[in-house]
Amino acid sequence: MSKYYYIARNHSGNKETGTEEGANQEEVVSKIQARGLIVVSVIPERADTIDNGPAKVNVKPKFKQKRDRITGADLTLFCRQLSTLLGAGVTILKSLDIIAKQVVSRRLYAVVLDLQKNMEAGLSFHEAMVKHPKVFSDLWVNLVESGEASGNLAVVLSRLATYLERDAEFRGKIISALIYPTILLSAGIGALFLMAVKIVPTFAEIFKGFNMTLPVLTQILLKVSDFLRFNMLAIFLVALGAFFSFKSYVNTKKGRRGFENLKFKLPVFGEFFMALNVERFSSEMSTLLESGVPILYSLEISERSVGNLVMADIIRTIKEDVREGKSLREPLERSNFFEPMFIQMVSIGEEIGELPQMFKKINTFYQDYCEVFLSRFVAMFEPLVLVFIGGVIGIMITGIFLPIFEISKIGG
Length: 412
Description:
Blueprint: E1 2-9, E2 15-22, H1 25-34, E3 38-44, H2 72-87, H3 92-100, H4 106-120, H5 125-130, H6 138-150, H7 153-208, H8 216-230, H9 232-250, H10 253-265, H11 269-290, H12 295-305, H13 309-323, H14 329-335, H15 340-352, H16 355-411
Antiparallel strand pairs: 1-2, 1-3
Helix pairs in contact: 2-3, 2-7, 3-4, 6-7, 7-8, 7-11, 7-16, 8-16, 10-11, 11-12, 11-16, 12-13, 13-14, 15-16
């Protein structure tokens, strides 16, 4: 029989520590759980752990870390691995130990080790996560706290991992849909610019050798070409200055709110931007409510993490009304932001006690809407850009060849 040092919490959330004998860690965990305690960690007791708690283990990663930054994919994988290990009955500290040996981000490796260190000192998992606000958002912390309180941490982490995977997949589809139009437009503008500053000046030199009056279209074309060539640096600096001025303005609260309102009022695209924000809000609410987070806390977390000031203001108003005992329907209608279908589905979900499921259905609808909108936009954008670029190139070629036709007539 070996002695093990353990950290556990009772149903009130208070920490309990001590030692327990057992043939292995699994037996000790079973004994502690039989006393109605939630096991945080079980570590073999050694001579240097009796007075100072568990000794620190120098965990070495199995794979060489390749980068410093932590990507969304890193956190999603971390969440999914932790959920799987906890669901298999592995203690949380042992799970973190296993994951630490596999991470490829140096920063995430350091974060996982710090989580272990703080939990060995007696903090709960969500309390240890709070110390890394740049890595773990409020959504992470509150879901983990809910999972620890209910004893279903593995289930909650699985839901969180599903949310992160679904969100990453959705964002990936949006980015993929916008890549082709961006490349097409950039290539078209680049071709027009090249013709204006390289090809047109070459023909201009040829025309100078002939004593003739150039057509009006050709004269305009040459003036535009000269303006671009001789003012290229000034144009670049003005564009750069305008970009950074706009960026600085948007980084202020007033500027950001104004820009967001402008996006929502755009013809055609305004509805798309509104749908994107509603999709994110409904996705977070369904995940939080399904994991047992109270509705007021869910609204508070969504307000901080929705990523849009206009939407955050609306959620704050909804939260205050709910705190006063009102239903969700009233503030949703007053906001003039949500569609009647959204309001009706939320209202029904609230009445029948299936609000998380309703938010999930709403999220699915808006994801489908955004994907269909983008696919249609790409299908329409390609021919429009091609017609525009073809038209401009046609005008330029006409302006170049009109003098050539005149010269050929003179020669004839």
